[in-house]
Amino acid sequence: MRELADGVFMLKGFPPNAINIYVIGDVLIDAGTRQAEKRIFRQIGGRSISAHALTHVHPDHQGCSHVVCERLEIPLWCGERDALAMESAGGMVNPKVPGWLTRLQERYWTGPPHPVARVLREGEEVAGFTVLETPGHSHGHVAFWRESDRVLILGDVLNNMNVNTGIPGLHEPPEMFTADPARNRESARRLAALRPSLACFGHGAPLRDPGKLTDFAARLPE
Ligand SMILES: [Zn+2]
Question: 27: CA distance to ligand 1 center in Å?
Fold first, then answer.
């Protein structure tokens, strides 16, 4: 793990920055695909983790949620409108994703269902961060914001790489995987307006350039 800010760690992965997992304080944020089990347990090692929170319940974020919560005996937290998907077999069914791709994700990525112990709501606290409800990419998407040093964990509201090619750069998440793109743009504008000194994405390298984020958000269509 690499420490990005006080108590904010990013797990290493391969390819680097492709599917990101963080630890903030004693909370694991996101859990990759089902293939991430070794990667997670090897890196969190002896560190004490007391809860697991999700930015959103997509297969590349909740894949190891069940195994992590079972093995560490910790509760799972996520946004209200994603909780049902986390608790149901098959997870989130997105009608815009073609059937073959959904089946492929279910086969290799999607983790088993797991009960949600706490629903995260706007303004609540998680490991010194404030929960921000940022719907759009999924209906229950949340971000985590620490105003004292302006650190933001923003899940897939924006990607800092092209998720198809791996080439770095800011992008909206692919429309196919985004429940409500217009709503997601509103969330992106809201987060960019915070001017985070460090932005940590679900996909792509951390960004320490708030101007880049505001410029990008300003160019998004209404
Ligand atoms: Zn994702």
Answer: 19
Domain range enclosing 23: 2-219
pLDDT digits (tens, 9 = 90+) for 128-147: 999 999 999 999 999 999 99
DSSP state of 6: T
Report the CATH number that the domain containing residue 44 is assigned in CATH.
3.60.15.10
Please give all residues whose CB falls under 5 A of ion ligand 1, grouped by chain where several chains appear: 60, 156, 202
Distance 47 CA to ligand 1 centre (A): 25
Type of residue found at 73: E
Q: How far is the CA of 131 from the centre of ligand 1 (A)?
A: 18
Give the residues of the chain that fall short of pLDDT 70: 90-91
Cβ pair 128, 25 in contact under 8 A: yes
Domain count, the chain: 1
Please give the distance, rounded to the nearest whole angstrom, from the Cα atom of residue 4 to the centre of ligand 1: 20
- E runs forming strands in the chain: 2-5, 8-10, 22-24, 27-29, 51-53, 76-79, 118-120, 125-126, 129-133, 142-146, 151-155, 159-161, 168-171, 198-201
Euclidean distance between CA atoms 123 and 116, whole angstroms: 19
Distance 37 CA to ligand 1 centre (A): 17
Distances 163 to 61, 118, 143, 186 between C-alpha atoms, Å: 14, 30, 19, 21
